[in-house]
Design a protein that fits this description.
252 residues; alpha+beta; Pathogenesis-related Protein p14a; 2 domains; 6-stranded mixed beta sheet; two-stranded antiparallel sheet; 10 strands; CRISP-related; SCP_CRISP; toxin; ion channel impairing toxin; ShKT domain-containing protein
Length: 252
């Protein structure tokens, strides 16, 4: 059996332990076409399931963004699923508008099941996760969960492909999360800010989820520290700290 990716080595997540209990509905898959774009009903199922679970995190989150569907991310996910490769896609195949980088969750199945049951399986990894500390055991898989509840990942696109030539699994499922979560650093095991739901977005709240994402990303990890010394008038910060400089009231 192929070993799982280690969460500390990659922002992507891959689990091999429960793959035969998963995912999508049979009528979404066309053996003659290989892959299929998800119908709107399934898109809504995926987005709503993620948002429902993001509202259920413990401790509660003050800055958790509400997710929405991204068609470009879905196309990228479909392209990779259709390749029928056991493993993660190159990062160059996970970019959407403005070069924004996306994270990736993968799962494989011998028979199709519902998306909701598989997404729930990812979320259930939280039983092995200690907020701010990481997995409760060194071998525990938690990366699917942390990507799912990464506060800043507010756009998602998913796809499924039928892979009849695959020896182990026939159904390949891919979800892309934008911007990517599971970023290495001090916040790796703190995928959101704990606090009262919508505590950081009281004027932009939908039942515990923030609706005011920042449209820009910081290229530098230390932008907040830099802004304590320099202003956004500095050209370097204008280019490398767009999120911090452009978004004063948005979640970023």
């Amino acid at each position: 059996m192929i070993p799982p990716c280690h969460a500390l080595e990659t922002p992507d997540t891959l689990d091999w332990g429960w793959l035969q209990t998963l995912f999508s509905s049979p009528w979404l898959i066309s053996p003659s076409l290989g892959s299929t774009s998800l119908a709107r009903q399934r898109q809504e199922e995926i987005v709503n399931k993620h948002n429902d679970l993001r509202r259920m995190v413990e401790p509660t989150a003050s800055n958790m963004l509400r997710m929405k569907w991204n068609a470009t991310a879905a196309k990228n996910a479909e392209s990779w699923a259709n390749d029928c490769i056991l493993g993660h896609s190159p990062k160059t195949r996970r970019q959407i508008e403005n070069g924004l980088q996306c994270g990736e969750n993968l799962y494989y199945a011998s028979v199709p099941k519902s998306w909701s049951s598989g997404i729930q399986g990812w979320f259930d990894e939280r039983s092995d996760f200690i907020f701010g500390k990481g997995p409760d055991e060194d071998t525990a898989i938690i990366g699917h969960y942390t990507q799912m509840v990464w506060y800043k990942s507010y756009e998602i696109g998913c796809a499924v492909a039928y892979c009849p030539k695959s020896a182990l699994y026939k159904f390949f499922y891919v979800c892309h999360y934008c911007p990517a979560g599971n970023l290495l650093g001090s916040s790796f095991y703190s995928p959101y800010t704990p606090g009262n739901p919508c505590g950081d977005c009281p004027d932009a709240c939908d039942n515990g989820l923030c609706t005011n994402p920042c449209a820009y990303e910081d290229e530098y990890m230390n932008c907040r520290k830099l802004l304590q010394t320099y202003s956004c008038q500095h050209k370097t910060l204008q280019e490398g700290c767009k999120g911090s400089c452009q978004c004063t009231n948005e979640i970023q």
